Structure formats: C-alpha cells, structure tokens
Amino acid sequence: MTTIADILAAVDRLAPFRLAEAWDNVGLVLGDPARQVRRLLVSLDVTEAVCDEADRAGAEVILAHHPLIFTGLERLTTHTPTGRLALRLAGAGRAVIAAHTNLDAAEGGLCDILAGLMGVDDAKPLEAASGTPRYKVVVFVPEADLAAVQAAAFGAGAGRIGDYTECGFSAAGAGTFLPGEGAEPAVGTKGERSRVAERRFETLVDGRCLGAVLAAVARAQPYEEPAIDVYPLHAPRAGAGQGRVGRLSDCRTLAQLADNVKETLDARAIHVAGDPETVVETVGVCTGSGGGLAGAVAEAGCQAFVTGELKYHEVQDLAARGVGVILGGHYRTERVALEAWVPRLAAALDVEVRMSESERGVIQMR
Ligand SMILES: [Zn+2]
C-alpha cells in the first residue's frame, strides 16, 4: 500500500525538493508520512473549496503548488485562514505536500512544460537553481564511537540521497593531539602527545537539517573539542533552474506569440507590452511570477518574455530594452503547466491522482 512517504519519494524523483529556493517551504507541510493513501488531489492552492473537494473525493493527501504554510507559525488557531485550513485538514486526517519552486525548476517541471507549450525547442534554464544548499559533514572520532555518531547523524536527517537513507563513508586513520593544561581530555592525558585510532566519518547533509545534524553529532562524539568539518557543496543538475530560454520552433511576431499564449492558457485576456510586429526567435518563459528574471531574459538575447506576472516597472524596463512582454496571469500559467504535469505524477504512483476541478484563480477577469 502506498504511503505519504512513498509519494514524497516519487515527487522527489520528479522534482527534487533540494531544487527549491532557500526561502521556500516544500515537502510534507502537514500530516503523517506513514499514512496510507489511495487518492491524491493536486491543486495550485489549498483553499476551502479544495478541502471540500478532498472530502468529496476521499483524498488522503493534497499536493499543492503553493505551500499552505510558508514561514514559521507561532500559533495554529482558527484566527487565521491558514490556521483554519490546517486544523480542518489535520482534523480530517489529511496531509498536504508542497511542490513549489522545486517543481518550477525541475527538468520536466512547470517551466519546461510551459516552454514546450509555447513551441520552444531545447529550453535551458534562465538562471541556475540556487536550490537548498547541501553540505558534506566530516567527523573524526575514536573507532569505538563511530556507530553512535553515525546513528546520531542519520537520526537527525543526514545521509539521504534519493531513495537511499543512511548514506555515509568512513575510513580508518590516526588522530593526534596534545592536551593543554586547561583541557579535560576524554582520551589521553594533559601534557602528553596522544595518538588515537580514529575513523573519519563523512555524510551528505541537506541545509534544512544541518543545524540538527551538527548538534546531534556534537552530542554523540566524545571529544572535549569536537573535530567536525562542514563543506558547502555545489549542487544542482545542469538542466534545472529558474525560468527557461530557447528558440521558437518557428519564427513568430510578438502579436502571433501573444495569440498562441492566449489560446494555450485559454485566457479571456492577457497583457502585452512591446511592438506587436517584433520578430521573436528566442523567448524567455517562466510560470507564475517572472519577477527577478528580467535581467537574465535581456542578457539571454530574448525578443520576448512569457510569464504570469511582472511588476509594472519590470515590464517598462524590458520594453525599453526591446524585449516584448506577455503576461498570461500567475494562475493560468501555473495551472495549465500543472495540469500537464499531473499525468507524469500519476504514472509514477500507484494511487488515484486527480487534478482539482473546483479551484479557481483568486483574480477574475470582468
Ligand atoms: Zn505561483
């Protein structure tokens, strides 16, 4: 039987959580990983309407693009919309998984999908994913303490790589030190050179649990002055990152491209800036908010940027640089891409996966 932990592992394979921006809050945000699942509901947001739909469908878990809980909560009460939703879901025994900037950035994720729908060949990231930093933590301990240190590190979340847990490496060697007069050495004697049969234990640690791992390892090792090194790692895979840039499969004017966007998104209206007759060969694409990518779009030599939303002055700046801007709406650009991603998720899981039919964008055209 599939559990929520199995679903998390499957989502992590399709859209690695470590690709999420450091400010994001992805993964299991509510619920019990051991809970068995038969039905999964996918939505952009967790709303009362989506919760009603989960009730009707008997979906034990909601996979939402936008995290229900973004920042640290100090209280979970019915005084806030988030608190009401979380308490309602928890009361019904449901879980919520967030796949947000990791899903935007992943190869085959939302930005790749939207680029494909625009007819962009060979899309590449506009910016490499900064992702969640990862570290290699190295600990030197007496041989007898290796098992305790490994257990402490793994227990705090170290050593997870894809579907594998408790990944680590250890090598034997000799540690040397000379305890000073003020020292209280766990091994050896003050004023005497010591040589100890040690193990160098190293393991991979996600930035989210680095503090917990270091604290656990420091408690488990015996030395008065722990020998722990932390190395930051350069991470993400080359194909993953924010936004996409690529060449259109055929040359179009900005006006034609805008028509394509409008049709693809099934939008009543979209916003366009720039000369409609501009010939577009290279286009930048970003689902949701393209804010912060305007510089990369201009540098990549794009003649147009298709995204959900931008600030007025970002549009003005791009237009002044000769880059046409097409804004399809935050909701529409993400919803259409998410709908196209859902079959991939369903193929990776042994549960019933359905896209929410009840949710509507919070902003409506009139
Ligand atoms: Zn969004």
Kindly list the characteristics that best describe this protein:
366 residues; Udp-n-acetylmuramoylalanyl-d-glutamate--2,6- Diaminopimelate Ligase, Chain: A, domain 1; Alpha-Beta Plaits; 3 domains; 5-stranded mixed sheet; 11 helices; binds zinc ion
Task: Summarize the structure in words.
With 366 residues, the protein is an alpha/beta fold. The protein has three domains: 4-100 and 336-355, Udp-n-acetylmuramoylalanyl-d-glutamate--2,6- Diaminopimelate Ligase, Chain: A, domain 1 (3-Layer(aba) Sandwich); 107-129 and 239-328, 3-Layer(aba) Sandwich (Udp-n-acetylmuramoylalanyl-d-glutamate--2,6- Diaminopimelate Ligase, Chain: A, domain 1), CATH 3.40.1390.30; 134-233, Alpha-Beta Plaits (2-Layer Sandwich). The protein contains eleven helices and 15 strands. The chain has helices at 4-14, 48-57, 81-91, 101-105, 110-117, 146-155, 210-220, 254-265, 294-299, 312-320, 330-347; strands spanning 27-30, 39-43, 61-64, 95-98, 120-128, 134-142, 169-177, 194-206, 227-233, 241-253, 271-273, 279-289, 304-309, 324-327, 352-355. The strands form three sheets. The protein has a six-stranded mixed β-sheet, with helices on both faces. Helix 6 (146-155) packs antiparallel against helix 7 (210-220). The longest helix has 18 residues, at 330-347. The two termini are 46 Å apart. The mean pLDDT is 93. Bound molecules: zinc ion.
